[in-house]
Amino acid sequence: MTVVMKSGRNSLRSWAPAAESVRQADLDEINARFEGAHPLDVLEWGFASIDGLVVGTGFQVGGLVNIHMAKQILDRVPVLFLQTGFHFQETLDFRDQLVRDWDLELIETTPTFGPEKQAEVVGPELYRTDPDLCCHLNKVMPLEVALTDRGGWATGVRRDQSPVRGKTEMFERQELTPDLVVWKLNPLAHWTRAQVDEYAAEHDVPRHPLYAKGYASIGCAPCTKPVNSEDERAGRWEGFGKTECGIHGVGGLEGSGHDEEIHAVGHNRTR
Ligand code: SF4
Predict the structure, then answer these.
(1) What mean pLDDT value characterizes the chain?
(2) Is 66 exposed, middle or buried (0-12, 13-18, 19+ CB in 10 A)?
(3) Residue 245 annotated among the catalytic residues of the structure
(4) Does the residue 8 lie in any domain?
(5) Is the whole-model pTM more than 0.85?
(6) Which residues lie with the beta carbon below 6 Å from any ligand 1 atom?
(7) pLDDT the model gives residue 257
(8) What residues does 180 pair with on adjacent strands?
(9) Per mean pLDDT, which range of 187-191, 216-220, 246-250 is the poorest?
(10) 221 in any annotated domain
(11) Residue 97 lies in a domain
Protein backbone atom coordinates (compact mmCIF):
# COMPACT_ATOMS: atom_id res chain seq x y z
CA MET A 1 0.00 0.00 0.00
CA THR A 2 1.80 3.13 -1.14
CA VAL A 3 0.92 6.73 -0.38
CA VAL A 4 1.98 9.67 -2.51
CA MET A 5 3.66 12.31 -0.39
CA LYS A 6 3.86 15.87 -1.58
CA SER A 7 7.28 16.88 -2.85
CA GLY A 8 9.68 17.95 -0.11
CA ARG A 9 7.51 16.16 2.45
CA ASN A 10 9.57 13.06 3.05
CA SER A 11 12.40 14.54 5.10
CA LEU A 12 11.42 12.46 8.12
CA ARG A 13 11.26 9.22 6.16
CA SER A 14 12.54 6.40 8.28
CA TRP A 15 11.79 2.77 8.83
CA ALA A 16 9.13 1.73 11.30
CA PRO A 17 9.06 -1.91 12.33
CA ALA A 18 5.77 -3.76 12.08
CA ALA A 19 3.83 -3.03 15.24
CA GLU A 20 3.89 -6.63 16.47
CA SER A 21 7.66 -6.49 16.78
CA VAL A 22 7.79 -3.08 18.48
CA ARG A 23 9.08 -3.25 22.05
CA GLN A 24 8.22 -0.86 24.87
CA ALA A 25 11.78 0.51 24.63
CA ASP A 26 11.15 1.42 20.96
CA LEU A 27 7.96 3.26 21.91
CA ASP A 28 9.71 5.07 24.76
CA GLU A 29 12.46 6.16 22.38
CA ILE A 30 10.15 7.51 19.68
CA ASN A 31 7.81 9.19 22.17
CA ALA A 32 10.82 10.90 23.76
CA ARG A 33 12.09 11.93 20.31
CA PHE A 34 8.76 13.58 19.43
CA GLU A 35 8.06 15.03 22.89
CA GLY A 36 6.33 18.38 22.34
CA ALA A 37 6.52 18.01 18.54
CA HIS A 38 3.94 19.58 16.28
CA PRO A 39 1.22 17.05 15.32
CA LEU A 40 2.09 17.64 11.67
CA ASP A 41 5.57 16.19 12.31
CA VAL A 42 4.05 13.13 13.96
CA LEU A 43 1.76 12.56 10.98
CA GLU A 44 4.58 13.15 8.53
CA TRP A 45 6.73 10.51 10.21
CA GLY A 46 3.75 8.19 10.30
CA PHE A 47 2.87 8.46 6.62
CA ALA A 48 6.51 8.14 5.61
CA SER A 49 7.20 5.16 7.84
CA ILE A 50 4.05 3.08 8.48
CA ASP A 51 2.60 1.15 5.60
CA GLY A 52 -1.07 1.91 5.00
CA LEU A 53 -1.47 4.46 7.81
CA VAL A 54 -5.02 5.82 7.79
CA VAL A 55 -6.63 8.72 9.69
CA GLY A 56 -9.59 7.55 11.78
CA THR A 57 -12.39 10.04 12.27
CA GLY A 58 -16.00 10.55 13.23
CA PHE A 59 -15.69 14.02 11.61
CA GLN A 60 -15.31 15.80 14.93
CA VAL A 61 -12.87 18.65 15.35
CA GLY A 62 -9.80 16.61 16.38
CA GLY A 63 -10.10 14.22 13.46
CA LEU A 64 -10.58 17.09 11.05
CA VAL A 65 -7.50 18.88 12.36
CA ASN A 66 -5.52 15.66 11.76
CA ILE A 67 -6.94 15.41 8.25
CA HIS A 68 -6.22 19.07 7.52
CA MET A 69 -2.59 18.51 8.53
CA ALA A 70 -2.40 15.25 6.57
CA LYS A 71 -3.58 17.17 3.50
CA GLN A 72 -0.34 19.16 3.72
CA ILE A 73 1.62 15.88 3.54
CA LEU A 74 -0.35 13.73 1.09
CA ASP A 75 -2.05 14.42 -2.20
CA ARG A 76 -5.03 12.32 -1.10
CA VAL A 77 -5.68 11.50 2.55
CA PRO A 78 -7.03 8.04 3.44
CA VAL A 79 -9.76 8.46 6.04
CA LEU A 80 -11.37 5.68 8.07
CA PHE A 81 -14.97 6.16 9.18
CA LEU A 82 -16.66 3.53 11.34
CA GLN A 83 -20.11 3.27 9.83
CA THR A 84 -22.20 1.84 12.66
CA GLY A 85 -25.57 2.35 11.02
CA PHE A 86 -26.59 4.57 13.93
CA HIS A 87 -25.02 7.91 12.99
CA PHE A 88 -26.87 11.22 12.84
CA GLN A 89 -27.92 12.22 9.34
CA GLU A 90 -25.98 15.45 9.98
CA THR A 91 -22.78 13.40 10.38
CA LEU A 92 -23.37 11.56 7.12
CA ASP A 93 -24.11 14.78 5.24
CA PHE A 94 -21.04 16.46 6.76
CA ARG A 95 -18.91 13.41 5.81
CA ASP A 96 -20.11 13.60 2.20
CA GLN A 97 -19.41 17.31 2.00
CA LEU A 98 -15.86 16.91 3.33
CA VAL A 99 -15.06 13.93 1.15
CA ARG A 100 -16.11 16.04 -1.83
CA ASP A 101 -14.54 19.33 -0.82
CA TRP A 102 -11.24 17.86 0.44
CA ASP A 103 -11.06 15.01 -2.09
CA LEU A 104 -10.59 12.41 0.66
CA GLU A 105 -10.14 8.69 0.12
CA LEU A 106 -12.98 7.40 2.28
CA ILE A 107 -12.63 3.95 3.79
CA GLU A 108 -15.89 3.09 5.46
CA THR A 109 -16.50 0.02 7.57
CA THR A 110 -19.61 -2.13 7.50
CA PRO A 111 -21.28 -2.90 10.84
CA THR A 112 -21.33 -6.58 11.78
CA PHE A 113 -25.08 -6.86 11.21
CA GLY A 114 -26.57 -3.44 10.57
CA PRO A 115 -29.40 -2.06 12.74
CA GLU A 116 -32.24 -4.25 11.43
CA LYS A 117 -30.43 -7.57 11.48
CA GLN A 118 -28.83 -6.74 14.81
CA ALA A 119 -32.29 -6.14 16.29
CA GLU A 120 -33.43 -9.47 14.91
CA VAL A 121 -30.36 -11.59 15.75
CA VAL A 122 -29.04 -10.04 18.97
CA GLY A 123 -31.86 -7.91 20.31
CA PRO A 124 -33.79 -4.69 19.70
CA GLU A 125 -32.28 -1.44 20.97
CA LEU A 126 -29.10 -3.23 21.98
CA TYR A 127 -27.54 0.19 22.60
CA ARG A 128 -29.97 0.54 25.53
CA THR A 129 -29.61 -2.94 26.96
CA ASP A 130 -25.94 -3.67 26.31
CA PRO A 131 -24.03 -0.77 24.76
CA ASP A 132 -20.67 -2.54 25.26
CA LEU A 133 -21.81 -5.38 23.02
CA CYS A 134 -23.38 -2.96 20.54
CA CYS A 135 -20.11 -0.99 20.28
CA HIS A 136 -18.17 -4.21 19.91
CA LEU A 137 -20.32 -5.36 17.00
CA ASN A 138 -20.51 -2.03 15.24
CA LYS A 139 -17.18 -0.40 15.98
CA VAL A 140 -14.54 -2.73 17.42
CA MET A 141 -15.04 -5.73 15.12
CA PRO A 142 -15.32 -3.58 11.95
CA LEU A 143 -12.17 -1.68 13.01
CA GLU A 144 -10.31 -4.97 13.23
CA VAL A 145 -11.42 -5.83 9.70
CA ALA A 146 -10.46 -2.40 8.36
CA LEU A 147 -6.96 -2.50 9.86
CA THR A 148 -6.18 -6.09 8.91
CA ASP A 149 -4.01 -5.02 5.96
CA ARG A 150 -2.81 -1.74 7.36
CA GLY A 151 0.15 -0.89 9.56
CA GLY A 152 -1.76 1.52 11.75
CA TRP A 153 -4.14 4.37 12.24
CA ALA A 154 -4.05 7.94 13.55
CA THR A 155 -6.69 9.22 15.95
CA GLY A 156 -7.80 12.53 17.44
CA VAL A 157 -7.48 11.29 21.05
CA ARG A 158 -6.07 13.85 23.51
CA ARG A 159 -4.97 13.57 27.13
CA ASP A 160 -7.18 16.42 28.28
CA GLN A 161 -10.41 14.80 27.04
CA SER A 162 -10.94 12.61 30.09
CA PRO A 163 -9.07 10.92 32.96
CA VAL A 164 -9.17 7.63 31.01
CA ARG A 165 -7.32 9.31 28.14
CA GLY A 166 -4.88 11.13 30.46
CA LYS A 167 -1.93 8.83 29.76
CA THR A 168 -2.30 8.72 25.98
CA GLU A 169 1.04 8.63 24.17
CA MET A 170 1.66 9.97 20.68
CA PHE A 171 2.94 6.58 19.52
CA GLU A 172 1.29 3.43 20.80
CA ARG A 173 1.15 -0.23 19.92
CA GLN A 174 -2.44 -1.49 19.81
CA GLU A 175 -3.22 -5.17 20.05
CA LEU A 176 -6.63 -5.43 18.40
CA THR A 177 -6.61 -9.22 18.55
CA PRO A 178 -3.85 -11.68 19.48
CA ASP A 179 -3.05 -11.86 15.74
CA LEU A 180 -3.53 -8.22 14.81
CA VAL A 181 -1.23 -5.55 16.23
CA VAL A 182 -1.04 -2.08 14.70
CA TRP A 183 0.58 1.27 15.29
CA LYS A 184 -1.76 3.79 16.88
CA LEU A 185 -0.69 7.40 16.47
CA ASN A 186 -2.30 10.14 18.55
CA PRO A 187 -0.69 13.27 17.08
CA LEU A 188 -2.87 15.59 19.21
CA ALA A 189 -2.28 13.71 22.48
CA HIS A 190 -0.46 16.63 24.12
CA TRP A 191 -2.63 19.40 22.68
CA THR A 192 -5.47 21.01 24.60
CA ARG A 193 -8.97 21.55 23.26
CA ALA A 194 -8.11 25.25 23.01
CA GLN A 195 -5.11 24.49 20.76
CA VAL A 196 -7.25 22.26 18.55
CA ASP A 197 -9.96 24.92 18.29
CA GLU A 198 -7.36 27.59 17.60
CA TYR A 199 -5.83 25.55 14.77
CA ALA A 200 -9.29 24.84 13.34
CA ALA A 201 -10.29 28.50 13.43
CA GLU A 202 -6.98 29.69 11.99
CA HIS A 203 -7.24 27.28 9.05
CA ASP A 204 -11.00 27.50 8.45
CA VAL A 205 -11.53 23.83 9.23
CA PRO A 206 -15.28 23.17 8.85
CA ARG A 207 -17.20 22.31 12.04
CA HIS A 208 -19.66 19.47 12.52
CA PRO A 209 -23.07 21.20 12.54
CA LEU A 210 -24.16 19.56 15.82
CA TYR A 211 -21.58 21.49 17.89
CA ALA A 212 -23.78 24.54 17.32
CA LYS A 213 -26.70 22.61 18.84
CA GLY A 214 -24.97 21.95 22.18
CA TYR A 215 -23.26 18.63 21.51
CA ALA A 216 -19.80 18.37 23.07
CA SER A 217 -18.85 15.05 21.46
CA ILE A 218 -20.71 13.44 18.58
CA GLY A 219 -21.09 9.69 18.21
CA CYS A 220 -24.07 7.50 17.34
CA ALA A 221 -27.47 9.19 17.57
CA PRO A 222 -29.04 6.88 20.21
CA CYS A 223 -26.05 7.35 22.53
CA THR A 224 -25.30 11.06 22.20
CA LYS A 225 -27.07 13.93 23.93
CA PRO A 226 -26.43 17.67 23.87
CA VAL A 227 -24.92 18.89 27.14
CA ASN A 228 -23.96 22.09 28.83
CA SER A 229 -20.59 20.92 30.05
CA GLU A 230 -16.90 21.51 29.66
CA ASP A 231 -16.49 17.74 29.79
CA GLU A 232 -15.96 16.71 26.18
CA ARG A 233 -17.11 13.13 26.76
CA ALA A 234 -20.26 14.19 28.59
CA GLY A 235 -23.46 13.37 26.77
CA ARG A 236 -22.23 9.97 25.57
CA TRP A 237 -24.03 6.82 26.84
CA GLU A 238 -26.14 8.78 29.30
CA GLY A 239 -27.22 6.64 32.25
CA PHE A 240 -24.35 4.17 31.83
CA GLY A 241 -20.94 4.34 33.49
CA LYS A 242 -19.49 4.03 29.99
CA THR A 243 -17.29 6.72 28.44
CA GLU A 244 -15.43 4.72 25.77
CA CYS A 245 -16.60 2.45 22.97
CA GLY A 246 -13.60 0.09 23.03
CA ILE A 247 -11.77 1.10 19.84
CA HIS A 248 -9.06 2.84 21.87
CA GLY A 249 -8.28 -0.25 23.91
CA VAL A 250 -10.37 0.71 26.95
CA GLY A 251 -14.07 0.46 27.75
CA GLY A 252 -14.63 -2.53 25.53
CA LEU A 253 -15.78 -6.07 26.12
CA GLU A 254 -12.44 -7.69 26.91
CA GLY A 255 -12.55 -9.29 30.31
CA SER A 256 -16.22 -8.42 30.73
CA GLY A 257 -17.46 -11.99 30.61
CA HIS A 258 -19.09 -11.56 27.19
CA ASP A 259 -16.89 -14.12 25.46
CA GLU A 260 -19.74 -16.57 24.94
CA GLU A 261 -22.00 -13.90 23.46
CA ILE A 262 -19.32 -12.74 21.04
CA HIS A 263 -18.68 -16.32 20.00
CA ALA A 264 -22.41 -16.85 19.44
CA VAL A 265 -22.67 -13.64 17.45
CA GLY A 266 -19.72 -14.67 15.29
CA HIS A 267 -21.48 -17.96 14.61
CA ASN A 268 -24.77 -16.24 13.76
CA ARG A 269 -23.00 -13.78 11.51
CA THR A 270 -22.10 -16.49 9.02
CA ARG A 271 -25.71 -17.58 8.54
S1 SF4 B 1 -22.32 4.26 20.28
FE2 SF4 B 1 -24.35 3.38 20.78
S3 SF4 B 1 -25.36 2.87 18.83
FE4 SF4 B 1 -23.15 3.27 18.43
S5 SF4 B 1 -22.25 1.27 18.44
FE6 SF4 B 1 -22.02 2.07 20.52
S7 SF4 B 1 -23.85 1.43 21.68
FE8 SF4 B 1 -24.23 1.06 19.48
Answers:
(1) 88
(2) buried
(3) yes
(4) no
(5) yes
(6) 84, 86, 127, 131, 134-135, 138-139, 219-220, 222-223, 245
(7) 52
(8) 177
(9) 246-250
(10) yes
(11) yes
